[in-house]
Amino acid sequence: MLAGESVGFVPTMGALHQGHLALIRQAAQENHQVYVSIYVNPTQFGVNEDFGSYPQTLQADLQQLRSLANDSWNNDSLGQITAVFTPTTRDMYPGLKPSSEVDGPGSFVTITPLSSILEGASRPVFFRGVATVCMKLFNIVQPDMVYFGQKDVQQTYVIQRMVNDFHLNTRVRVVPTVREQDGVAMSSRNVYLGKRRRKVAPILIRALRAVRTEYVNGATKRDILLSAAHRVVEQELERQTALPPLRRALFEVDYFSLADPLHLTEVEDVNPSHGAVLSGAIKMLPLEESYEDEVLGIGGDKTTVRLIDNIRMEMPSFLRKSKSQTTSSP
How far is it, in rounded angstroms, from Cα 172 to Cα 145? Predict the structure, then answer.
């Protein structure tokens, strides 16, 4: 690397999709060198989670990266992919075998209380594992900028807090969520969803958008806003429950959150000047029955799949206009 050249780093767990590629494109727009890592980190999976079945598609991922490096967009970019880092677990955890137990041994980075709320409440070791592996990767790569997707909004807060608290010499860039045509946020775990469960998956973004509509129309109270989300999911759940087991796809709501955009703490009333981070998680339950020749996801739709998503609710446009008029009036 030449003196003065910047490094943008995109850490991934592989099973690459357009969301990952958007991060890489953004990194190439802003840096001379782009490094990508592919490593399925065991310490961010709980003991009963899907580490063993998580999609690992290294050769396909490498081919995607080769194709991306040859795309015409590179002509307008500052940099390009110059290294792909695919470490082993022995490389990343050279001491004790990594533990996925809450009280397990090992050297870990913990960021509290951010790591214990929302996703952390359901997955108690998740953010400990994410922070730990990112600290290791940042130390190895020494990037000027690191890139994460908005879909994993709580993760971006955890990483930013870690960078600040440990005085790491890197900047965190958050790139907007890339979505499917029906609004579902792209995720490596979507491959677990067969056709039937995938058809129901947009219920999460529909619920979040219903809240945003209430907010744009002037509602700011937590109970009013979140009740819009619950109405949407309850209506869909009633519809699914009424179907026979061979035709339905059931789900459970894990949480809906309405949080302050600075600290990610829950708010009872949204301050329009600050806005809020609206997020949610649902669990797509295993199919009760499947029919012959049904299009199933990886694992045969026999495991629960968590879907997460979020929307950043900014100041409503009518308030922005009002504020602008007030400011410009003599």
Answer: 6
* SS3 call for 113: coil
CA dist 299 and 104 (Å) reads: 28
Instruction: Give the number of other CB atoms < 10 A from CB of residue 293.
Output: 6
DSSP-derived letter for residue 37 is: E
pLDDT (0 to 100) of residue 233: 98
**Which region, left, alpha or beta, applies to residue 14 given φ > 0 means left and ψ of -120 to 50 means alpha?**
left
Query: Which pTM value belongs to this model?
Result: 0.92
Cα–Cα distance between 320 and 330 in angstroms, integer? 18
Q: Which of 17, 20, 263, 274 is catalytic?
A: 20
């990767």: which residue's tokens?
Answer: 137
Q: What is the average pLDDT across 9-20?
A: 97
Of 295, 201, 298, 190, whose CA–CA distance to 240 is shortest? 201
Question: How crowded is residue 79: how many other Cβ atoms within 10 Å of its Cβ?
Answer: 18
Q: Specify which residues 281 forms β-bridges with.
A: 255, 308
CA distance to 105, 108, 163, per residue, from 96 (Å): 8, 11, 25
276-284, strands of its sheet edge to edge: 251-259, 276-284, 305-313
Is 20 among the catalytic positions? yes
Give me the residues paired with residue 174 across strands: 148
How do residues 194-213 score in pLDDT, each as one tens digit? 999 999 999 999 999 999 99
User: DSSP 3-state assignment of 325?
Assistant: helix
Q: What type of residue sits at position 159?
A: I
Start-to-end Cα distance in the chain: 55
**Residue reference for tokens 């899907």:** 50
Query: Is a pLDDT exceeding 70 seen at residue 321?
Result: no
The confidence score (pLDDT) of residue 4 equals 76
- Asked if omega into 113 is within 30° of 0 (cis), the reply is yes
Q: Alpha-carbon distance 154 to 168, whole Å? A: 19
**Secondary structure (DSSP) of 39-95:** ---GGGS-TTSSTTTS---HHHHHHHHHHHHHSGGGGGSS-EEEEEE---HHHH--S
Dihedral, CA atoms, 54, 59, 62, 66, nearest 10 degrees?
A: -140
∠ CA 278-284-285, rounded to 5°: 145
